[in-house]
User: Which sequence fits this backbone?
């Protein structure tokens, strides 16, 4: 099995080099790994080192609370942050709380040995789904503790199959797993792995911190005015926008809509505007009386997580495409979270629906009925909002538990 794995790693590395001249992502990965190899020859850390590995941006957001707490409470540690994906590395290569940001080398025995010798970590954190055979074996042989953060397991994974003995070797390299849910814990227990804790997802700590530190936006405040019927729609695509616009143009003037599209280039913004028959304006082109408008189009990035606080109901885009976007940023403010039908791959969405803090709609008619029901029943709106907020509050605390058990 190790031979097959090595062949697979070698074939993937060769493929990356072959397609690099024609594919930008492959080019970034190939060149990034070369720079990492050179940088490893130059590295000389003084003091203790923590290595945190995230596949891409989503996993980075789960590792970020750990990095922040290390720097806050244990500044004696240097932090090495690695990414597998260029989409993570290129966005966070200048992350100021990391002392070094690198690409994860390909998983060969030689690369694992050279990398670990170069950075000499005292503690290692792998985020969510990351399992690299040679790196884990090398860390285990050097008795360097590896902790799995915000990990989630599914019964379909090879670890839990009759042929999974080789894959289970990787699990034995971990000092402890901090898993997101009881299902993951039960799966590990079923194969004799007991070194786990059901801690939740560190992303919940991250979104709670973001909400507590969120900026105020005077223009958004003026737009909202005295209205207590505001829908904030985040990361929307055209099918989402059709549902939202259909609704806002069919109801009374008390209801307002804030749309923060996933794509904010001028062509897409113009497409939204062409559909609107009610007063609107772009955030970057404010009007003299914003409170008289019905729709605010947020055509800039970096505001969405703070803007949710101005609404009573959140709509999360993507559910009519490949899948919904981040539901937690809205739920942390305590508001019903609505999204399209393609949500099954997202645990938070499933949880919110199960707790009646979230709702999935199939189209405009169902959305209209749901929203009108919220506005007409204040007790229902409050109950749904409370359940959404309680879900986030209950799931917070993973970061504190990990820091307490690993560092104190």
Assistant:
């Amino acid at each position: 099995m190790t031979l097959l794995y090595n062949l697979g790693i070698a074939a993937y590395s060769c493929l990356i080099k072959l397609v690099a001249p024609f594919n930008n992502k492959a080019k970034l990965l190939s060149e990034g790994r070369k720079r990492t190899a050179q940088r490893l020859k130059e590295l000389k850390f003084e003091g203790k080192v923590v290595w945190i590995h995230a596949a891409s941006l989503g996993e980075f957001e789960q590792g970020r609370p750990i990095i922040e707490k290390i720097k806050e409470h244990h500044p004696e540690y240097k932090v090495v942050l690695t990414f597998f994906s260029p989409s993570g590395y290129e966005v966070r290569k200048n992350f100021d709380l990391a002392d070094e940001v690198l690409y994860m080398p390909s998983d060969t025995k030689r690369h694992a040995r050279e990398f670990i010798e170069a950075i000499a970590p005292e503690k290692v954190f792998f985020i969510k789904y990351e399992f690299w055979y040679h790196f884990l074996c090398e860390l285990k042989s050097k008795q360097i503790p590896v902790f799995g953060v915000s990990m989630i397991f599914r019964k379909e994974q090879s670890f839990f199959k009759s042929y999974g003995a080789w894959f289970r070797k990787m699990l034995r390299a971990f000092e402890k797993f901090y898993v997101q849910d009881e299902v993951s814990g039960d799966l590990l227990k079923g194969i004799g792995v007991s070194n786990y804790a059901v801690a939740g997802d560190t992303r919940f700590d991250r979104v709670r911190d973001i909400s507590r530190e969120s900026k105020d936006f005077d223009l958004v405040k003026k737009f909202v005015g005295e209205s207590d019927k505001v829908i904030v729609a985040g990361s929307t695509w055209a099918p989402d926008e059709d549902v939202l616009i259909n609704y806002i143009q069919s109801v009374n003037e008390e209801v307002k809509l804030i749309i923060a599209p996933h794509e904010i280039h001028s062509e897409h913004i113009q497409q939204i505007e062409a559909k609107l028959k009610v007063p609107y304006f772009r955030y970057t082109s404010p009007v003299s009386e914003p409170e008289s408008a019905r729709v605010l189009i947020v055509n800039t990035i970096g505001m969405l997580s703070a803007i949710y606080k101005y609404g009573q109901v959140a709509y999360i885009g993507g559910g009519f495409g490949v899948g919904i976007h981040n539901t937690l940023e809205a739920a942390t403010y305590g508001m019903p979270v609505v999204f399209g039908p393609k949500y099954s791959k997202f645990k938070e969405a499933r949880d919110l629906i199960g707790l009646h803090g979230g709702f999935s709609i199939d189209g405009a008619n169902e959305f209209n009925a749901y929203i009108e029901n919220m506005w007409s029943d204040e007790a229902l709106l409050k109950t749904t909002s409370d359940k959404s907020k309680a879900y986030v509050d209950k799931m917070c605390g993973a970061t504190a538990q990990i820091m307490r058990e690993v560092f104190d």
Observations:
- The longest helix spans residues 24-42.
- The chain has two domains: 2-209+396-407, 215-394.
